[in-house]
Amino acid sequence: MISIINNLGIIIGISLMYSAPLIYTALGGVISENAGVVNIGLEGMMTIGALIGATVGYYSGNPWLAFLAAGMAGGLMAVLHGIASITFTADQIVSGIALNFIGPGLALFLSRLFFEGATMTKPIPLDNKMPQPFKNILPEITQVETIKDAMINFFRNAIFNQYVTVFMAFILVFIVWFILYKTKLGLRIRSVGEHPRAADTLGINVYRIKYIAVILSGVFAGFGGAAMSIAVVANYRATLISGQGFIALAAMIFGKWKPQGAMWACLLFGAAQGIAIYLGGTTVKVPSTLLAMTPYVITLLALIFVVGEGNGPKANGLPYEKNQG
Fold first, then answer.
1. CB count in 10 Å sphere of residue 85
2. Do residues 270 and 250 lie in contact, with contact meaning Cβ atoms separated by under 8 Å?
3. Using an 8 Å Cβ cutoff, are 215 and 35 in contact?
4. What's the whole-model pTM score?
5. How would DSSP label each residue in 105-148?
6. What single DSSP character describes residue 323?
7. Residue-wise pLDDT tens digits, 234-271
8. What single-letter DSSP state applies at residue 149?
9. pLDDT tens sequence across 143-170
10. What are phi and psi of 209, to 5 degrees?
11. How far apart (Å, rounded) are the C-alpha atoms in residues 276 and 80?
C-alpha cells in the first residue's frame, strides 16, 4: 500500500509536468479555431518557442524573460500564418504545414548561430530554470515506513515539486474560459468563428479578431515550447518537441474546442507520457521504443474512437473575404 501511494505520487507528478506544455499549446489552438482559423502550425510555433526560451534563458539567466521571449517568438510565427491565411486567404492547412517545416529548420539554424555550430543549446543552470515555488513546503522522507510518510511524499511529488509553469497552465485554462464565455471579446471571437458574415454586419472587425486569436495561439504555443525547454528539461535539442504540438492539436479536438475539454485531454496525454517515463525507470521489462510510442498511440486511439464527429466552429477553416457575397 505504501509503495503504491509513493509510486502514484511520482506518476502524477511527472504527468502534470508533461501536461503543462500541452495545455499552453492546446489553449492556443482553442482560441485560434474558435475564431475560425485552423492552426496546425502549433508544432512549428512550439519548436521556435522552445529554442528561443532556452537561448534567452541561457544568456540572460532570467527564466521569466526567457518565457516571455518564447511567447513573442511564437507570436511572430503566428503573424506569418495570419498574413497567409487571413489577409491573403491562403489554404490554412497548407500555411500551417509550412510553419511546421519552417519552425524546426529555423530553430536548427538559430541554434547553430547562437551556440557555435551546435544543434542543441547549452544547458541552463538549475537555478536559472523556472522556479518551483512550493518545493520546500513538505520535507522529503527517504525512509517511508508509515502511510502518513507515504502521503507526505505523495503530495510532495504530485503537487509541491511542480514548476511554476504547471500552476500557470491551469490558471490560464480558467482565464481563457472566462474570456471566451464571459467577455465581449470572447463573444466576438466565437461569433467570427461561427458566422463571420453576420458578425461583420454587426460591426465586428472580423480580420482584427482573427489576427488577435491567431497571434495569441502563437504566443501560447511559444509558452508551451518554453515550458518544455526551461522547466521540464534545461535546454533545447532537435527532438525535444517532436510531436508535442500535434498531440496538443489532438487534445484541442478531443476537448471539443473548449479550454476545459482541452485541459482534460492534455492531462490524459500527459498521463500517458508520465506512465511511459515512470516505467522506463523501473525494472519492468517493456521495450523503450514501445514506451516512447505510448502517448502517440493513445492520441490516435482517442481521435479514432472517442472524438466522433467533429463539432467545431462552423466557419472554422473557411477563408473570409469581406466583399464577397
1. 27
2. no
3. no
4. 0.93
5. HHHHHHHHHHTTT-SSPPPPPGGGSPP-TTTTSS---SS--SHH
6. T
7. 999 999 998 899 999 989 988 889 999 999 999 988 88
8. H
9. 777 788 788 888 888 888 899 999 999 9
10. -65, -40
11. 36
